[in-house]
Structure of Phage terminase large subunit (GpA):
Amino acid sequence: MDRRRRFDRRKAVEAAEVGPIPGIVHPARREACRQDLLLFLQTYFPDTTGLDLFSADHIRVIDRIEYCLRNGGRFVNAVYRGFAKTTITENAALWATLYGYRRFVAIFGSDQAAANQLIDSITRELEENPLLAEDFPEVCTPFQHLDGKPQRCRSQTQQDEHTHIRMGSDILVMPTIWLDDARTRCTPSSGCIIRARGLLAGTRGIAYKRADGEKIRPDFALIDDPQTDESAASLPGIEKRLGLIRKAILKSAGHRTAMACVMNATVIQADDVVDQLLDPERNPAWQGERIKMVRSWSDAHETLWQEYARIRHSYNRDIPGDADRAVRAATGFYLAHRAEMDAGCELSWQGCYDRSTEVSAIQHAYNLYFDDPPEVFESECQNEPATAQPAGVEKLDALTVARRLNGFRRGIVPEAASHLTGFIDVHDDVLYWLVCSWSTGCTGAVVDYGTWPDQQRRYFSKRQATKTLGRKYPGQGREAALTAGLEACVNLLCDREWSREDGSPQRLDKLLIDCGHSPDEVELVCRRSRFASALQMSRGVGITASDTPIREYQRKRGWRFGEEWYIKPGGNRALRPVRFDSNHWKTWTHARLATPVASPGSLSLFGTAGRADHRLLSEHLVSEKPTETEGRGRTVISWACPPGRDNHWWDCLVGNGVAASMLGLSLSTEVRRRTSRRRRALAAARTAGRLGGTLETAAQSPASQ
């Protein structure tokens, strides 16, 4: 029995021993790929990244990954579906660890299942790729010796020394192979780690403790498709993923080593995770680009290709196989007119097509374009998803808004203005304020805007604000500092004599203060201020299609009603806030910004061309996105601010419109008629397809005149 046990033990030891590591078959080939990730991908993976010639876009993306692996940085590559981004990500992680460029590569997928698939794919390459086995035997031989059994890792030895190899569903640890008997030199890949995690599967605490007791943290993150279709369409989902990337992933290296990061992904929705990281204004530390499948369409886009689409989709749906006949007929038409149909069309990758049913990448791109709605192709293939714009709402961009100048100097009230209003948007750290003048017909002009405390710089975000109420009023606590800041801001605006164009002074007629955030402090300031007669607490309520509009509320004694706003008497507060439908007033304000400057019912900004910098203000004014909702037999435009954007001066401008309405101002009948005609023209143009899904040229429609 003892002899049998000794025999079994000896057999187990022999099974765990890897034995001598074979020599490198092609040292020159291995050495050539050390300095060239692209060559590595094409040489050692002939069935994946070496199957087709890479495009110039592929080469540029791979060069970015190589640079980042060697030197660090943050890169986001927005690439289309089918670009082989996942395979490139996997094989780049292998390159970094096989040559020892990185000690700990963390790969992040959209979820844990996707992350585990990445590790499984890398493991198969180490076990089954004959080219890797020839040139990297010090890594592949120990993995092959495991025979797919992770439980053998703990006992594996090489020349009686434990290799400390590890193979799991979410982690690979490269074997430690010593190059000399004194154990002073080991292979470059020894102890290197590749670990995969789902983005939401606990990205914190990803450090790994090696067998020698050293605890190492990730020094490189490869993020592969960090979002799903559902998360890209959800504002909380976007915000959560951005927070995890910025905090948990990028900070996981600790403070002694900067985390390098590459993200290969596709823009799914406007303002999703990838779209925001590509914005240099919001994320200046990230570099990258959007790579389109189609750079330019064919010269025959509106002629021969439309006939191709008609042939491809002309089949009898009741006859099995007739769709295949139509596809073959369309391919025959393309072959007969290929030179004309290819002319002018420029693609990213000529090797991107199905050889069994298609004859070129151009045909493949057009098949994708014709077989699904345009928005699918714009997102999945062009990385430029269209923002759904409700019918009748013009699309505005920050540059267009910033150019809406009226020629007045800052702080000057136009002579035609009859009223002056203001609004304060309240936050714990910073107060945003904006003052508007109004003339007959609700023609408005932004007279001045700013923050309290003054940030003393032109471009900043709320989270980057360095001059805060807490620092302005140290040692007073949040409530006391907010109260002191509100009182100072109210005095700044109400005690000021604003200069009219003719030189005469004018004071604010109405100043609304948002009380949704801190109602107690706002009420206290309004009650004890010497400008109490001009102050009004306010609160916006987003009324959707399923809610009862304010205009249909039952009129009760003591209630005061205006255009989608009301003041309700009684309650627990001595002062009664004005409550207004924020969706209605945001749509109203947006229409004023879309009306040509100097026209009745328009809104303009102070300044002259070349002398005004409204970049930050204009970004606030176009920060929110409209969506169309239906319910109870009516349609309502709802507004929401994507995560990562500031909308505070937009809220101020909207509040100024409410203040003007409280003073008795309203759009003239002609302005109302013109606005209604314009909305109908926009909706009709979109329905007819004349604008191709956008609204930029709607103003030229005859129906809008």
